[in-house]
User: Fold Rhodanese domain protein from Lysinibacillus odysseyi 34hs-1 = NBRC 100172.
Amino acid sequence: MKTMTTDELLNLLDANEDLNVIDVREDFEVEQGTIPGAKHIPLGDIPARAEELDKSKAYILVCKGGVRSANACEYLEEQGFDVTNLEGGMMAYDGELEFK
Assistant:
């Protein structure tokens, strides 16, 4: 499984890269803020909502600490998606937040 540090993610965000971030946390966790532009798909909804994703795009998955997003990465990799897990999740992320 590919992984990325929060520093690597922040560098990509600072460079205005076109990123596809998927936040797999629960609704109450997302209320505390998300990475700007992140799409919210709770972990339990990933199998049912995988058709919303495009296999030609790369995705970065994030959760609170990195474990749930790793599980989502494993599942999506098996389905043929290009996914990267954010190490340490939102607990390690100290960049800008977006509130929805």
About this structure: Strands lie at 2-4, 21-23, 39-40, 58-62, 82-86. The radius of gyration is 12 Å.
